[in-house]
Specification:
This protein is mostly helical. The protein is built from 15 helices and three strands. The chain is rod-shaped. The relative contact order is 0.07.
Length: about 300
């Protein structure tokens, strides 16, 4: 006991800022027991009770339950151990709340139906293993299953989302939309055709030598023309089209003719599918990568330039 000073429950309430009812409640549960009683039978507390109540209030504000608090103040449990366990529990709650917030925000922004809301909620709740299975199935459908894994390993990794353990709401929203896209059969078919084109080009390059990705080659050739405001249908665009068309002809070991340019236009239209660009944007958000460069303007220009020159 700190000296002989004893406090009534009312005095203790004034010193701690707690109500008499709250202190009596803690006292009845043995968390802050009275030191003595007055001749009239009223509870009396020593000065140590003030510090004890301050600790109890702090732990309650941090969300600890009363049985745990009693064990802590009685030194039956280590406060650091209790704090660590409680922090872990809070981390789980925070993650759940982030998921809920992300889904509700997406529902509000997209005006989702009940069915879409249910799907988004289910996708947001997937475990890491379930997310990997979903994306694995998506990539297998696009690249042709396990047999293609070695040949396409780099590309597959570049298309794989990795949601962090403690994602931001924006990352959760991006993951949900990305997962929805990965379940879309039409989107899978679009990427599958692109993968088949790329595989054929890669096979050709074994005889024609190393080559740059056709979309990157077209970007480098057509980008400056687009920036300069050159009309894709004008004669000024002829040498630009000839340059990236010749690159594609060399890649496929075929003549640069009308048929090849039509094929190239179709190839670029596939790359220019807005769903592909959206997937890459969402992927960057989920993985915390820089936002990808948009190829849409330069691909639009290039496809138009090719179509104009292959009309019959």
């Amino acid at each position: 006991m700190n000296g002989d000073t004893l406090h009534s429950i009312g005095e203790l309430a004034r010193r701690t800022g707690l109500t008499v009812k709250t202190i009596r409640f803690y006292s009845d549960r043995g968390i802050v027991a009275p030191t003595d009683r007055s001749p009239a039978g009223y509870r009396l507390y020593d000065t140590d009770a003030v510090a004890r109540l301050d600790l109890v209030r702090t732990l309650r504000e941090l969300g600890l339950d009363l049985p745990t608090i009693r064990k802590v103040v009685d030194r039956e449990l280590s406060l650091p151990e209790v704090a660590a366990a409680h922090a872990e529990a809070l981390a789980v709650q925070i993650r759940v709340l982030r998921l809920r917030r992300a889904v509700l925000t997406a529902v509000a922004e997209r005006g989702s139906t009940l069915e879409e809301t249910e799907l988004m909620h289910r996708l947001a709740q997937l475990s890491e293993a379930e997310r990997r299975r979903l994306i694995g199935d998506f990539l297998d459908a696009v690249f042709g299953g396990p047999d293609a894994a070695l040949a396409c390993a780099g590309v597959m990794r570049s298309l794989t989302p990795e949601l962090p353990d403690n994602p931001e709401p924006e990352q959760v929203q991006a993951w949900v939309e990305l997962a929805e896209m990965s379940l879309d059969p039409d989107f899978r078919a679009v990427l599958r055709r692109m993968a088949e084109y790329q595989a054929a080009e890669q096979a050709r390059s074994e005889t024609t030598g190393p080559h740059r990705d056709i979309a990157a080659a077209v970007r480098d050739q057509a980008g400056p023309a687009l920036a300069a405001g050159i009309d894709p249908a004008s004669p000024q665009a002829d040498p630009i089209v000839a340059a990236f068309s010749a690159h594609y002809a060399h890649l496929l070991a075929r003549p640069d003719d009308v048929e090849l340019r039509r094929r190239l236009a179709t190839r670029l239209e596939g790359v220019n599918d807005p769903r592909r660009e959206r997937y890459l944007q969402l992927l960057a958000v989920v993985n915390g990568w820089p936002a990808p460069e948009s190829l849409a303007p330069v691909l639009d220009w290039s496809v138009q330039a090719l179509r104009v020159r292959t009309q019959q």
